[in-house]
Amino acid sequence: MSEMTSAAEAAAPHRYTAAMAADIEARWQDFWDAEGTYEAPNPSGDLAGDPAMAARPKKFIMDMFPYPSGAGLHVGHPLGYIATDVFARHQRMTGHNVLHTLGFDAFGLPAEQYAVQTGTHPRVSTEANIVNMQAQLRRLGLGHDKRRSFATIDPDYYKWTQWIFLQIFNSWYDEEAKKARPIDELVALFESGERSVPGTRAWSELSAKERADVLGEYRLAYASDAPVNWCPGLGTVLANEEVTADGRSERGNFPVFKAKLRQWNMRITAYADRLLDDLDALDWPEAIKLQQRNWIGRSEGARVDFSVDGRPDAKVTVFTTRPDTLFGATYMVLAPEHGLIDSILPAEWPEGVKESWTGGAATPADAVAAYRKQAQTKSDVERQTEHKDKTGVFTGAYAQNPVTGARIPVFVADYVLMGYGTGAIMAVPGQDERDWEFAEAFELPIIRTVQPPEGWEGEAFTGQGPAINSANDEISLNGLPVAEAKSRIIEWLVAKGIGEGTINFRLRDWLFSRQRYWGEPFPIVYDEDGVAHALPESMLPLELPEVDDYSPRTFDPDDADTQPETPLSRNGEWVNVTLDLGDGPKKYRRETNTMPNWAGSCWYELRYLDPHNSEKLVDPAVEQYWMGPREGQPHGGVDLYVGGAEHAVLHLLYARFWSKVLFDLGYVSSAEPFHKLYNQGMIQAYVYRDSRGFPVTAAEVEERDGKFFFEGEPVKRELGKMGKSLKNAVTPDEICAEYGADTLRLYEMAMGPLDVSRPWDTRAVVGQYRLLQRLWRNIVDEATGEVTVVDTEDADIDADTLRALHKAIDGAGQDLAAMRFNTAIAKITELNNHLTKTAGPLPRSVAERLVLLVAPLAPHIAEELWHRLGHTGSVVHASFPVADPAYVVDETVTCVVQIKGKVKARLEVSPSITDADLEALALGDETVVAALGGAGIRKVIVRAPKLVNIVPA
To answer: Is residue 566 part of a domain?
Structure first.
């Protein structure tokens, strides 16, 4: 410590320093915890005894679930948490009953992989990570209701995750009622004959297994054999959304293959229309709505049946958005996974088949098998984005074009996906670019059915135009525009019984199984016939058993010919059980897959409302109070939900689906989980790379003359993410130790607009530190520690100070309510700087209002100053100051007067001056008269009170 520093500290022992900040912050955090300062009362019980609180409007504010990583937080992680905390504090101070809390999304692959590497049970490592993260978040002064916190790995929590799964399993979607209904009601319809059982037999004639199979076609949660994304390197299957564009796993970057496995699925497709339509009433960023709309992918068109030569029992059904082009279908293509392929393959190649169609294989079966193996290695994105190099193989089968009668070949090609439409297309090369490329590669006919513009040749025409080459003995579309041609052909298809107008969706059912240990067990058991049975609620939660080996069996990442083996399947004592499910003790086998990590986050907003309820998912009155529909929120939901835009499709879509099922079944009043969504930006950091391209420790890089060096060697600088792997992470603990948590909070909120990414600069943090030091110095004597304010009535305070105060109250209040935290801080800083320059001690009323302005942003120093000013209640529940309109309006504003676009004069005028008065004032100004030099005036443009533009004649 230097002599100068020692002398300064001796002269100002009560100066606001990092050490003082640490003491203040720890002390008030303990006080808030002890007093339950942030506890939000519920309507059942708590509010009944507090009429004043009951009269307040409610505000439910949420952050997206954090995952408790072992690496802890860096300064980029708490950006959203600080923002919601500032907003929540402002809402409390403006008269709201605020619910703000935070739990932990703790199941999933990272903890399991860590357990495999270290031999530590996932629960042990995860709970330790939670304790560490809780300590880091507490240090930031976040005002969470800690009574409501939980982790998804708590059995008391995942009991209800399992319970919700069973409600979905025991439900079906009634297309007529447009809602989910209990499966028992469907059974009753089958039993009474009011609804026909698929097939020719009555319900009473079916065996138990046959009945289960029928119900499986209706249940909203069902098991099926379906093409899945199999990742041998991870030993698990993945949802489409967990596979990258180049066909690799999002985690681990392993190859992903297509395989057919029996998996649990959620019938989210039943809700496609409602998931689309209800977006309109949500207060979400338009970019996120667009992503969801595109993912759901609603399109109108027709389903058309094509008969297969020599197979009267087989037909290929296609979905097309352009049925008007049916006359131009010259071949068909099936996705490699299409279930009809094997049944239509002839034993031998047809006579005269082109060699280029066979792939060099001896038989159609050999050709298709080889092609399927090749297609397994490509992701859906790869299959759809390849251009000019179409691959495929002929099946040896022919179908019939239903409008021309032409015999057309049926191919297998990977540019057709099972995940869209029916997994089969009628190929119209004249009107589709991919079909054109394929037709050219395989020398197939091309027939145009839409008239292209004059001079168009050599490629497909995908635009609008009159129909051509589209007539048979019964119908002609020639000359019709596209819309009319579509309508006419659909009518004809329906009349002939070979097609129908329909709506299709890109959305696929949600793959809900994972071959992992660290996830929620399915509350399902199988009898000796393989029929799935739901566990009764009394047997929930079904807890994870202790196992010695947590890892799913992994394989050579490139070996597609493998099958999953789950950790739970190796625990025979847990898997094979004798249970009495109501009809006597029987032997059952448990489901050995676990739920995906998305399951716990599909409904956590509801648990925050009623976290200790062991009898119900949530008390209906509590849910109605916090999340029920109200004016401006027709579907109900959380009032503000803040998180990253990367969850636009996955979590948000899944949570919306679960909410709608629970709403249909009468368990909640809110059909949507999150009414308002806000996506915060990212805090970025500079990454420094050496000559090999490897990151070096950012904190040890030196800058000299605009260049950067690490251990004497030059390095390159680039802006990127912040993280341990890039060696550029800065922890909040470091900043709190050097400056205090309030400084960190202010800096992160002042860096720029919340929804914009911004670079971290540790050197700039000191600016907010100095703001707090000046704030402290304005109220507390640094030598004595005494409060220096004086009791002065507003009437005796100078007008400039009152004007600065009330403009800051008005501006900062509006900014805080709109989450414009950077501009709110700028206005508070401007006020504080004004007060710093004011002679003499501050009036108490000014000091108190200044503290209240700062309280949402820097709560620790505000609480300390509030109590030093003589208040006994917490500043957290004090009222936010109200601006006096008389002082908010400027007495004068500066009006710029231009002649020919150049500024010639500036006038101080009243903000309320009229256009006419301002024009007269400007034209009479001596400087303006001199500048005109007697010239006539052609036009005067007035924008009162700030601009007059004079155009001379």
So the answer is: no
* Strand 407-412 versus strand 311-320 pairing type: unpaired
Is residue 692 included in any domain, yes or no?
A: no
Q: Is residue 594 part of a domain?
A: no
CA distances from 737 to 30, 77, 116, 734, 900 (A): 18, 18, 35, 5, 58
Query: Above 80 in pLDDT, residue 183?
Result: yes
Q: How many CB atoms lie within 10 A of CB 25?
A: 24
Task: Decide if 265 contacts 226 (C-beta within 8 A).
Answer: yes
Phi-psi sector, 791: left (phi>0), alpha (psi -120 to 50), beta: beta
Q: How far apart are the first and last CA of the chain?
A: 73
HEC-encoded secondary structure of 109-133: HHHHHHHHHHCCCHHHHHHHHHHHH
384 within domain boundaries: yes
DSSP 3-state assignment of 144? coil
How many C-beta neighbours within 10 Å does residue 755 have? 14
Q: Which two tokens stand for residue 799?
A: 């007008």
3-state SS assignment for residue 899: strand
CA dist list (Å): 360 to 34, 357, 393, 439? 78, 8, 10, 19
Report which DSSP code applies to 39: P
In angstroms, the CA 797 to CA 793 distance is 7
> What's the CATH code of the domain at 490?
3.90.740.10
Task: Label residue 1 by pLDDT band (50, 70, 90).
Answer: very low
Neighbours of 917 (CB within 10 A): 15
C-alpha to C-alpha distance for 258 and 340, rounded to whole angstroms: 17
- Of 401, 398, 397, 402, nearest to 498 by C-alpha is 402
Instruction: Read off the tokens for 722.
Output: 């912040």
Question: What does 755-796 look like in DSSP terms, one character per residue?
Answer: TS-EE--GGGGHHHHHHHHHHHHHHB-TTT--B--B---GGG
The CA R_g of the chain, rounded to the nearest whole Å, is 35
Q: Which of 505, 531, 558 is the last residue of a domain?
A: 505
Closest to 512 in 3D by CA, of 520, 503, 501, 504: 520
Neighbours of 204 (CB within 10 A): 10
Give DSSP secondary structure letters for 395-439.
EEEEEE-TTT--EEEEEE-TTS-TTSTTSEEEE-TTT-HHHHHHH
In the chain, how many domains are there? 2
Burial of 706 (0-12, 13-18, 19+ CB in 10 A): exposed
Rounded CA-CA distance 888/677 in Å is: 32
Return the exposure string of 655-683: e unless at least 16 CB atoms fall within 10 Å of the residue's CB, then b. Answer: bbbbbbbbbbbebbbbbbbbbbbbbbbbb
Mean pLDDT over all residues of the chain? 92
Q: Quick one: what percent of the chain has pLDDT higher than 70?
A: 97
Over 90: is that where the pLDDT of 368 sits? yes
Tokens representing 534 are 């739901």
* pLDDT score at 552: 77
Last residue of a domain, one of 505, 530, 559: 505
Interior CA angle at 62 toward 57 and 64, to 5°?
165
Residue 439's domain comprises 298-505
CATH number at residue 935: 3.10.20.590
